[in-house]
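Entry 12.
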Amino acid sequence: MSPLILFAPGAGAPSTSAWMRAWARRLGALGQVVPFDYPYMKAGRKAPDRHPALVAAHGAALDEARGAPERPVVLAGKSMGSRIGCHLAVERPGISALVCFGYPLRSGATGALRDQVLLALRTPVLFLQGSKDPLCPLDDLAAVRAKMTAPNQLHVVEGGDHSLEVGARERKAAGLTQDDLDGVLLVVIRDFLAAHGAGA
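Predicted 3D structure (tokens):
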């Protein structure tokens, strides 16, 4: 049975952004993708809701989207959406897998390390990270992963930014397009989900 993939946006752009729409289309090859927005985005506010409200909204979106109880559920998210998905997975048993696009391990405001939720996780999690992402230094992530209990996997996009996008000069030097790089990511996601019982 193909999974339900609940797809959460980052803090700065809604589910209708070009990045979210493009990835929703790609993920559609792996399951039923249901994007959603947090309440502050729906209300047209810039500042995210407080943490408990974000987790509650994520849970409500899952309840609304969820169908057959035996269907695998994958929480995918970009940046803040991936972090809130991890919090929801800690609270709710039965999530099959997490896919984190650009996990924000360090706070953009204070630089504080936000690893508590990762250490509490038991749900398999895939980290997709750009090597140039200032919100997730790879050395910091490696140290956290060494302490995690949950099965976890990391795929690094060399030269990638917080949105996993690589500059034109570097792509040209490697003889690759962004579509090529995104296609590799999709295969990584597909194989990860299959390995954890959430494949199509």
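Annotation: The two ends are 6 Å apart (CA to CA). The chain has eight helices and six strands.
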